[in-house]
Write a structure and sequence with these properties.
Layout: H1 6-9, H2 25-51, H3 59-84, H4 87-106, H5 117-132, H6 134-143, H7 153-192, H8 203-206, H9 209-259, H10 267-307, H11 316-331, H12 346-367
Length: 369
């Protein structure tokens, strides 16, 4: 499924986020040079901007701006470097996703289909919001000036577009997890009816030892796919979340400063237009991660349900394989993880909101000194 989207996704290579070509080593070499150029030009602009700070800016505001700007450059560098050194791994991930889909269609007889229109609407809508939300900041920067806006524009676009791409990948993973869980539910329903139901025209096949083995192998491939994804994008996800957290928290602080009439009310346009896409990205990403986690829990409940409904027709080998499958599901959890630092789910979203309140209060106390 991901391979079929490559004719459209390859244009993200202009931002260094995906490889332009799979087989042409010359194109990959040129893209690596282009990626290094993007990193260097942003680093040079950062150093030049910080070396010549505006004299009229408050010290606390200047320090906050520099910190956020620095983290954006670091996050952009991590995103580009992680993709640049893993072009082959990216296409390996695409191939593994394709092979898993073929297994689900062939051995498990699951219609693979595609993402729902709601998923595509969410991804396209989020991408449009991320791009359109830059325009109000452009207006504010032209009218009254925004510190470090123009020099950080490229890094902002790269970070936001990487979020949209990663969200697409997570939705594809969640789609495959849901399909596997649905097939396990069919098997559980057959066992609860003592193999007398006809769900797919051949209920005995669903209750066979061979079919359970295919389910177990599919789950293992899915776990390996999640592990590969976490290794491919783990550091990028971590750095992006740090930037999104800082950016949204600081924009709440700027909003408070504007309302306290420290700055012109025109800056409200920029702060609101920056906060909305950053929070939307964090919310959408956490919800997608939560969907994968919940589907993993459902798979675990279906497998444990099979162990709780033994039938006289089962072979001893079937029960042994079922025990192995249960242990596999319990230990090989299908979750989105950022290099062991955090799991992407609803609990992360609540932790971020709680931390935001704390840091906004601290910033407000410092600004009142």
């Amino acid at each position: 499924m991901l391979y079929s989207l490559q004719p459209y996704l390859k244009y993200f290579a202009l931002l260094g986020l995906v490889p332009w070509s799979e087989k042409c080593s010359r194109h990959q070499f040129l893209q690596r040079i282009y990626t290094v150029f993007l990193i260097l030009i942003n680093v040079v602009m950062f150093i030049a901007s910080v070396a010549m700070p505006p004299v009229s800016e408050q010290f606390l505001s200047l320090m906050v701006n520099v910190i956020v700007f620095a983290f954006k450059i670091v996050a952009m560098t991590v995103v580009l470097l992680q993709m640049m050194i893993q072009y082959d791994d990216y296409y390996l991930f695409c191939m593994e996703l394709k092979c898993l889909g073929l297994r689900l269609q062939g051995e498990l007889q699951i219609p693979l289909g595609g993402l729902s229109w709601k998923c595509y609407t969410k991804i396209l809508g989020l991408g449009a919001i991320c791009l359109v939300a830059v325009l109000p900041s452009v207006y504010v920067s032209v009218r009254v000036g925004l510190l470090y806006f123009w020099v950080s524009l490229i890094s902002v676009l790269i970070i936001r577009m990487q979020c949209v791409l990663v969200l697409l990948y997570v939705d594809l993973l969640g789609h495959h997890v849901r399909l596997l869980g649905k097939r396990l539910l069919d098997v559980l329903s057959c066992h609860m009816m003592d193999a007398n139901c006809v769900l797919d025209g051949n209920c005995k096949q669903l209750c066979s030892l061979e079919f359970l083995l295919e389910l177990k192998q599919s789950h293992m491939e899915l776990y390996q796919l999640f592990t590969h994804f976490n290794g491919l994008f783990g550091w990028s996800i971590l750095s992006i979340y740090v930037v999104l957290f800082l950016d949204s928290t600081i924009n709440i602080y700027w909003t408070q400063q504007v309302l306290a009439e420290v700055y012109d009310y025109t800056y409200l346009i920029s702060t609101i237009s920056t906060f909305i896409p950053t929070f939307a990205i964090m919310f959408a990403f956490c919800r997608c991660g939560e969907f994968c986690r919940m589907q993993n829990m459902l798979i675990g409940s279906y497998v444990r349900g099979l162990t709780c409904h033994p039938t006289s027709q089962r072979e001893p080998a079937y029960n042994d394989l079922l025990i192995e499958f249960t242990l596999q599901v319990e230990h090989n959890v299908l979750i989105i993880n950022a290099e062991g630092f955090m799991n992407i789910d609803n609990s992360l979203l609540m932790s971020i909101l709680a931390a935001k309140v704390t840091y906004v209060v601290v910033l407000m106390q410092f600004s009142s000194l």
